[in-house]
Amino acid sequence: MLNFFRKSALLFFVLFSISLSAQEKKELDIQSDVSQIDEEKYPGALVMYKSTKQVYIQHEGIEMWCDLAFHYKAENFVRAIGNVRMKQGDTISMRSNYAEYNGDTQFAWASGGVNLRTPTATLDTDTLYFNRIKQQAYYRTGGTLRDTASVIESKIGRYYLDQDKYSFIQNVVVTNPEYVINSDQLDFYSESGAAFLYGPSTITSETSTVYCERGYYDTRNDNGYFVKNSRIDYDNRTVYGDSLYFDRPTSFASATNNIRVIDTANNSVIKGHYAEVFKDKDSVFITKRAVAITVQDQDSIYVHGDRLVVTGVPEKRIVRGYYNVRLFKSDMSGKSDSIHINQANGLTQLIGRPVLWSGLSQMTGDSIHLQSNTKTEQLDSLHVFDNAFLVQQDTIPLFDQEKSGFNQVKGDVLYGTFQDNALHQIDIIKNAESINYMRADDGELQGIDKSKSASIRAILENNALVTITKFKQVDGEVFPLSKFPKESREFEGLVWRGDERLLTKEDIFKGEAPFTLTKIEGIPLPEIDEDFFDNSIPDEELDIPEASKLTPSDLKNREEDAPEIGVPMSDKATIKKETKTPKREKPTPKFKVKELPNLKAKDSTDNES
């Protein structure tokens, strides 16, 4: 009984081996109206012609038609000539002038007007290699892919049938009615229209240019995001960020982390860590350590707030800042709840508990306006409306244990003028009052002058009060320190905020919690599959039929055709698997222009009467 089982098992193994061998070398099935043998001219070939029907070839799920075929039965090989068609199920069909097919290796090669069709795209090239075992096609002499939205050209291309994916290398150009993409390397998923860009790449249209060195673009919905050395160029703005999202139909862009928005029309820069740009509305919103930097007379003005908003065309640009606004210039700084800057007329308005420091002087009021000369870009004047208060701490302590006193000027309205961008003259209008610590040239206190008048003019040199002139004085007296009580040394409403003064541009963030950048979902490097051809096989062992037009050099991978960017499949455990479409939702704009509070303060003319 044991011998019976052994013989049965041996018989089964032999039959299985014969069956497997027959499957591996299944012969080509070729049919034609006319066929002949001409051993002298075509040794080893059965020549088959078209009469009423084309020559028909079938093998392992692939069908071919042609006008003329040379069938080399011993090598299970066919050469097809004239109006060649090849079809594999419902997924792929190909036309060409010439083709070869090896039944043993299931390798096809086509040349001359090659047209490959899939359910989602059409590829045209001069020469195409098709490996049915790998289900991959390859060209390296230039090709053009056409899908429902775009035309893609490249020197080298590889098609993965199981993923409906094309990998394009060298001189890649995607042409769409709305834009053109140029890239060194691009992976394209035909079914979804998803394009992954690697290496220096641009997306150019009439209204913008996107640059990146790694990015994703949805060619169907016309949007994408970019995560390496990315920027968007508009007519007069350039947006930089670690991560950029761009939606062309709505002209909307958003940026995350290390953002710069450069305004070339107004010589300014906005920085922060989250921004939204609405091109059609000429508006930019920026938050998370937002800073606007404007160059003025070879000096930079820094404006920081929880949120900055820039709106309007270049000649009518408006900058608005909301909540905890700080302003810094080399010789001036300030704070307020909000700010409104009109770059067209040079007017800056500090609104809500404003304070302004110019040198040693502190100015406060209900609102403060700074006026710049739009031609010279120098500060021209300032206005403090309602409850104007100018205070400057005296430079010498009164006694060892007593703090310094305060020089003070207050009134309804304050007007100031600048010389060479430095505050030079101050006029206090209506209900003016002053307290002035009078000192000799050696610093000795001579007395304290307290007075009331219709108006007061103060002159500053090197940021210090040097003279005070009173007009229509109503009341006034100079007191020695010993007869000037402490409770009378400060006017009602004095709030000294010298410890809040900004001394450097870094101080605009003083007191804020440390900022942590948002973690960005990146785009992994592409996986480089194994070479299309197997270079490990010696030339003499390549399965190339003698009648083939191919040479060993045709079936070798060339170094100059290899992708420059990517991670080999052997290292794929170290990277994330790339999917057909990135797992990232389209961002929803956080800001709406119509919902913004109106920060425009009253005109300076309102208080001039």
From TrEMBL:
Under Gene Ontology molecular function, one entry of this record is: glycolipid transfer activity
Acidic residues bias located where?
535-544
> What is the native source organism of this protein?
Leeuwenhoekiella blandensis (strain CECT 7118 / CCUG 51940 / KCTC 22103 / MED217) (Flavobacterium sp. (strain MED217))
Give a yes or no for keyword Signal in this entry: yes
Biased composition of type Basic and acidic residues is found at 573-609
Q: Which UniProt keywords apply?
A: Signal
Name this polypeptide is given:
Organic solvent tolerance-like N-terminal domain-containing protein
GO biological process terms, alphabetically, are: lipopolysaccharide transport
Q: Name one Pfam family in it.
A: OstA_2
Q: Where is the signal peptide?
A: 1-22
Q: Does the keyword Signal apply?
A: yes
Region called Disordered, residue ranges: 535-609
The cellular component terms of Gene Ontology attached to this UniProt record, alphabetical and capped at eight, are:
cell outer membrane; outer membrane-bounded periplasmic space
InterPro entries recorded: LPS_export_LptA, OstA-like_N
Q: Where is the Organic solvent tolerance-like N-terminal domain?
A: 33-184
The record's annotation in Gene3D superfamilies points to: Lipopolysaccharide (LPS) transport protein A like domain (2.60.450.10)
